[in-house]
Amino acid sequence: MAARPLDLDAGWQLHPQVSIRPERFGALLYHFGTRKLSFVTTPLLLRVVELLDSSRSARTACVEAGVAAEEMPTYVKALSTLAASSMICERKEIAA
After folding, report:
1. Smallest Cα–Cα separation from 87: which of 4, 41, 22, 20?
2. Taking a C-beta distance cutoff of 8 angstroms, is the pair 75, 58 a contact?
3. Region at 81 (left for phi over 0; alpha for psi -120 to 50; beta for the rest)
4. pLDDT beyond 80 at 1
């Protein structure tokens, strides 16, 4: 089953129960709640994931990390997969 496409214009974050272990190829993500392990297969995707918390949107995180426009569909698919496995989650904005 394919992951639902991620809303690039929404704010996203690493799930609070997920730990990142950087590796030469990218990183391992471990979710302590679900006990799932995911692979981030490139350093650039790892950079995008690291920028999610501080970026206005997933699109902004991709741009800030240096994802080229023609690569964006690949990164949307990867982020969608991470969201489907609860490694990242949509950030809930707090009203001022």
Report:
1. 20
2. no
3. alpha
4. no
| Dihedrals phi, psi of 28, to nearest 5 degrees | -105, 135
The total number of residues written for the chain in this structure? 96
Q: Which amino acid is at 13?
A: Q
Residue 69 CB contacts under 8 Å (≥ 6 apart), including other chains: none
pLDDT tens profile 11-64: 999 999 999 999 999 999 999 999 999 999 999 999 999 999 999 999 999 999
Is residue 79 within 8 A of residue 59, CB to CB? The reply is no
In this predicted structure, what is the pLDDT of residue 94? 47
> Measured between alpha carbons, how far is 95 from 8 in angstroms, rounded to an integer?
21
Give the whole-angstrom CA distance, residue 31 versus residue 87: 7
pLDDT at 92 > cutoff 90:
no
